[in-house]
């Protein structure tokens, strides 16, 4: 599931516009001509988005120029030229702009405005991120093909429909969404199949445990009961019972010793338990104490937990292992039956 979420996020990120910080102090974008200032500021010509000159840069090496007319439903493009350019940073906060090897001073006023001085005129250009993101690649290719195929250099107008672009974006969104849904469904299916296999393995292990227990010869059963009785009568067990009766919490470093004692009395218990289910530390400690015949109220005391919490742990373990609801006592009976 996490893998699916990450993949969907990557797909959405691939469709998102490029961060403006990546274009800082670079020409690569769409720029519209906003103002021309003549020598001595004798007159000005101001342009707006309804009809203006548009420059699009491919990196800082090629400039595509066209006339642009933008309406509510479409973008009308008239290709003009494609020119080799070079941007040189002089290192003093100034730039030299080479257009077909002709040098012109270029100034970055801010992140959205540049000024280029050409033939005594000052041209002010404004960056248009929305045009770049929505139409940039298509306009560049359109100008390139028009200039290559239009040998007579007739002026052609091309209409780029905003409605078609929105429909295209919707189609892309639907495709990506469907892809994400398919991936999520495949992951869910894989998890379901894996869980079913795990359940079958668990059922096989439980059946093997029961068969091993049922087929055990009587002499072996008698010997196991003798080992159990000797341990429950030992001073170690009596000391453990006394500590539990007084409500002393079992320290962290004492759990390994308790586990070793359980393994000596029930050699197969811990391995069978770990093979059945990947238990948490608390769940494993509860099972160890159940195997040592410690009462649930005393288990809660030495683990500093509520009795209801210990009961929930036991019933939850039964459901996880057997795949069906069961009480805390059902789990206790199962724990007492294995590893002997």
Structural summary, described in words:
This protein is of the alpha+beta class. It folds into two domains: 23-162, Lipocalin, CATH 2.40.128; 216-337, no CATH class. The chain contains eleven helices and ten strands. The chain has helices spanning 2-15, 129-149, 162-214, 218-232, 235-245, 255-265, 269-276, 281-291, 296-302, 307-322, 328-337; strands at residues 30-37, 44-46, 52-58, 62-70, 74-89, 95-99, 102-110, 113-118, 121-127, 158-161. It has an eight-stranded antiparallel β-barrel with strand order 1-3-4-5-6-7-8-9. α1 (2-15) packs antiparallel against α3 (162-214), α9 (296-302) packs across α10 (307-322) and α10 (307-322) packs across α11. Mean pLDDT is 79; it is low at 1-25 and 46-50.
List low-confidence stretches.
1-25, 46-50
- The run of helices and strands is HEEEEEEEEEHEHHHHHHHHH
Number of domains: 2
Sheet having the most strands:
8 strands, antiparallel, barrel
Strand order of the largest sheet: 1-3-4-5-6-7-8-9
Summarize model confidence as the mean pLDDT: 79
Q: Tell me the β content.
A: 15-25%
Category from helices, strands and their pairing: alpha+beta
Q: What gyration radius follows from the Cα positions, in whole Å?
A: 39 Å
CATH class descriptor of the largest domain: Mainly Beta
Q: So how many helices?
A: 11
DSSP E strands, number: 10
Name the shape in a single word: elongated
Q: Helical amount among residues, as a percent range?
A: 40-55%
Here the CATH topology of the largest domain equals Lipocalin
């Amino acid at each position: 599931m996490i893998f699916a979420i990450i993949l969907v996020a990557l797909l959405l990120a691939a469709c998102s516009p490029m961060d403006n910080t990546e274009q800082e102090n670079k020409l690569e974008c769409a720029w519209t001509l906003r103002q021309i200032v003549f020598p001595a500021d004798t007159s000005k010509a101001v342009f707006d988005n309804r009809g203006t000159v548009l420059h699009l840069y491919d990196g800082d090496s090629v400039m595509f120029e066209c006339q642009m007319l933008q309406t509510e439903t479409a973008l009308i493009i008239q290709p003009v030229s494609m020119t080799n350019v070079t941007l040189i940073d002089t290192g003093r906060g100034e730039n030299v702009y080479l257009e077909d090897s002709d040098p012109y001073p270029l100034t970055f006023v801010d992140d959205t405005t540049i000024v280029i001085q050409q033939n005594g005129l000052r041209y002010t250009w404004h960056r248009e991120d929305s045009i770049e993101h929505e139409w940039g690649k298509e306009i560049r290719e359109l100008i390139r093909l028009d200039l290559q195929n239009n040998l007579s250099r007739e002026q052609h107008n091309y209409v780029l429909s905003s409605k078609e672009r929105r429909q295209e974006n919707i189609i892309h969104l639907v495709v990506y969404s469907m892809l994400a849904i398919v991936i999520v469904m495949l992951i869910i299916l894989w998890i379901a199949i894996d869980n079913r296999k795990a359940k079958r393995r668990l059922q096989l292990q439980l059946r093997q445990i029961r068969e091993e227990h049922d087929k055990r010869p009587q002499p072996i059963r008698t010997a196991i009961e003798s080992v159990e009785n000797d341990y429950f009568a030992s001073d170690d067990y009596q000391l453990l019972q006394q500590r539990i009766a007084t409500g002393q919490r079992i320290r962290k470093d004492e759990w390994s010793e308790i586990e070793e004692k359980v393994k000596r009395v029930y050699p197969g218990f811990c391995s069978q338990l770990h093979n059945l289910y990947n238990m948490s530390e608390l769940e494993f400690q509860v099972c160890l104490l159940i195997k040592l015949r410690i009462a649930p109220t005393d288990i809660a005391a030495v683990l500093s937990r509520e009795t209801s919490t210990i009961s929930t742990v036991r019933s939850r373990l039964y459901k996880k292992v057997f795949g069906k609801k069961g009480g805390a006592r059902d789990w206790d009976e199962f724990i007492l039956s294995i590893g002997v």
